[in-house]
Amino acid sequence: MNYDFFAPRQIHFGWDRFQEVGTLAASLGTRALIISGSRSLESNGVLEELQSLLSRAGITSEHIRTISHEPEVKDVDHVTNILQHHSHGAGDFLIGIGGGSGIDLAKACSAMITNRESETVLDYLEGVGQGLQLTEEPLPLMAIPTTAGTGSEATKNAVISSYAPAFKKSLRSPEMIPDLILCDPKLACSVPPEITARTGMDAITQLLESYISSRAQPLPQALSLQGLKLAIPALPLAVEDGSSRTARENMAHAALLSGIALANSGLGMAHGVAPPLGTHCRIPHGLACAVMLPVTLRANRSVCETQYAEIARHLDPGLTLSDAEAADAFIDQIQALNDQIGIPRTLSELGVTPEQIPDLVAGSRGNSMRGNPREIPDEELTQILQGLL
């Protein structure tokens, strides 16, 4: 058995541990350049508190940018240019705080500020541009997730979008895994129910797809099982009662595990289709993954019956069904979970039209789709997507 395993260097997890941010950040440098992923972090005082806690630890800080959408090429280039004009030097480090958008932007900028063979991130993205490689170590980075979804705090890539032309591609390097993760589930208590549902299903999709991926590995599979056992019962509780400590802790832990799992094992069809749903139809990533998950499970059932049964029995050790029955019951359980938290069953409910299907199929052929446990030809994918209209 041969495999490689990538994981964050430091993970600090726990309720109200945000108060330790100054002490922890001191190990990275003396000046923090902050990139945030939600304007609510400004309005609810989290950013102000962050800078105050840093100041008490003797760390100066500057809030560079807030991003309220999934990062685009122009965002990375613009913020990298701002950082350059802040004359970064010894003692400088980045803090990415927010959901996946803010953390991905921070990760991309941490790499681009030290890799200047091209002035645009486009030339470093997979499958577009010049195919340049990241050769210099990124600026030190602390990730502080405030939603439980993407697991971006633990992955080695940043997802960057473009709408003209339409694509969503990764900037990727093992060096992009944040140096330090501070995960305080309490920070997610203010996340609205709808966003909680979407981001939570993104984490569950990541856990499932990395478990059944063609590149699945034993350590990530073990993490995925733990994450699923936490997330599947916790997500409805977090949607219903955002202040539930147990639900928020379990979802934050599951999302963190999902990031580690996908960084090592890859993903599958749901995450393959999600990028073009974002760039062509403007559907938020977590929502796209959630809608695509049940049909992805059904599409892979012929080769994943044993894995589905394994997951079902892990979730319910008393299950006495056959593998076939357990696999079907598990798929039904995921669909029921979607229904319970208000995820639509069809793409047409999200505004997708038949005319967009060819572009969605063409745009799905990225790194995630290559991890799907079986090949999904264009003709079959077309039929699958048409069946969701």
TrEMBL record:
A Pfam family:
ADH_Fe_C
**Per its UniProt record, what PROSITE patterns does this chain match?**
ADH_IRON_1
Its keywords, alphabetically, are: Oxidoreductase
Q: Where is the Alcohol dehydrogenase iron-type/glycerol dehydrogenase GldA domain?
A: 8-185
Domain spans labelled Fe-containing alcohol dehydrogenase-like C-terminal: 196-386
* SUPFAM superfamilies tied to this protein: Dehydroquinate synthase-like
Q: Which domain of life is it from?
A: Bacteria
UniProt EC number: 1.1.1.1
Q: Which GO terms describe its molecular function?
A: alcohol dehydrogenase (NAD+) activity; metal ion binding
Family named by the database record = Belongs to the iron-containing alcohol dehydrogenase family.
PANTHER family to which the protein is assigned, alphabetical: ALCOHOL DEHYDROGENASE, HYDROXYACID-OXOACID TRANSHYDROGENASE, MITOCHONDRIAL
According to UniProt, the name of this protein is Alcohol dehydrogenase 2
Please give the organism. Gimesia panareensis
